[in-house]
Amino acid sequence: MPSRIANVWAAPCEECGAQANAPCQDLRTGLRRQLFGRRTHRSRARAVKAMGSVANQPQDHLRPGGYIKPDMVATLTGPTGQYNPPTGGWINIMSTSNTSTITIRDNIWQGWVVGNTTGTSTFITDQQLMRFEGSGITWNQVQPYPYINVTQEQVAQRWHVLHENMVQASAAAGEAARRMADQAQTVREQLARERLARQQREEQLIEQRLMAHGRGLELLDMLLTEEQQEQRHTGQIRVTGSDGGRFVIDIGYRSVHGNVFEEDAHGCFLGRICVAPQMRVDGRALPLSDGWVGQLLAIQANEAEFRRVGNWSSVRRCQHPDVPILDRAA
Amino acid sequence: MSTITRENQMYTEDPKDEQHMLSVPDETGDVRHMWDPRNKAEVAVAKAAFDEAKRKGMTAYAVDNETGERTRTVITEFDKKLGKIVMVPALAGG
Predict the structure, then answer these.
(1) Do A286 and B27 touch (CB under 8 A)?
(2) Which residues in chain B have their CB less than 8 angstroms from residue A287's CB?
(3) C-alpha separations of A197 from A184, A186, A206 in Å
(4) What is the ipTM, given to two decimal places?
(5) Average pLDDT per run of 10 along chain A, which is 330 residues long?
């Protein structure tokens, strides 16, 4: 057997799932690329080497000696068939002329027989025919005869071996491809399940937070006067402290940090104070509305403590100290 | 006044009676414990919740919405006669 194999891709690859006559895929990286040149995976190289001389032929189905596919029909021109029965080599084109027809595999024996006649009829025995049962090969020129032609016997054996190899290789490649497809499907299903569970958890958390905020607003409304309830819808609640200070809780700020400022009787801005209840209880965050409830009660119950604890910013004086404060209209 | 029965106890429904409430904030908004001053079991449950909230460092505010000034006072002990008690976590500067 020649040292260099003409077709290193004669057999399919079990490692990467490459089909016959196709290069191997590079599994070393996550990128989709093929192995360069004639390099293949080791298992494939061993399988190709086991195929023997068939793998040594170019796998071009249009060329003489090609590994012929069952349903392929083509007309070729080429040299006559080369068959060396003593060495068991593979016969190529079954014709004694320069033109030959490669027909489907199930009657290639017939073609060989027809093309290789030497004036006498050649036959295949019933025993030889039985060897090919189940292989899809059919023989038209079958006549029982008492003797066996040696060359026909060797060709028949070779066909049978190659057929078995092809069937097994196809089955193995198919099985490997099925395993890979099953694994890929399993991974896709797992990712889809995790994605859906994560989305459901997020939506559930959002819904819970909205309900908690609504419940806090309900409690806040219980503590407000009617006028303050109307102010709430504008985004600002004016509160009078226990020491007479005037504060505005800005709920439109959507926060409990820096959302309270003091104003005077003129409505002048006097400063911003950042103070709020601790917004985590037992490690869980409270809704914003609970923070606003705490600010409201702290201002109304203990203004001094509220002022002391808070951090002030933007402190300024009244801009209109000389403007008299008018009493509110009755 | 009408008479109602609840848990084998006879009460007289008085229009002036108001449901007493203790509000303790949590991640769901708040947990509200209702009690009737005449029901010892309910009072005990509310007091236990009050004490637990105080243990966590919360401040208790007694809310009286009936007066014109809407008084708010800080309390340190549970009083079953109070109409509404709202627990608020400790204040902190931001």
Answers:
(1) yes
(2) 27, 29
(3) 20, 17, 14
(4) 0.79
(5) 71 86 82 82 88 55 36 30 33 35 39 41 45 44 36 57 71 84 91 94 94 93 88 90 92 89 88 92 92 94 92 85 63
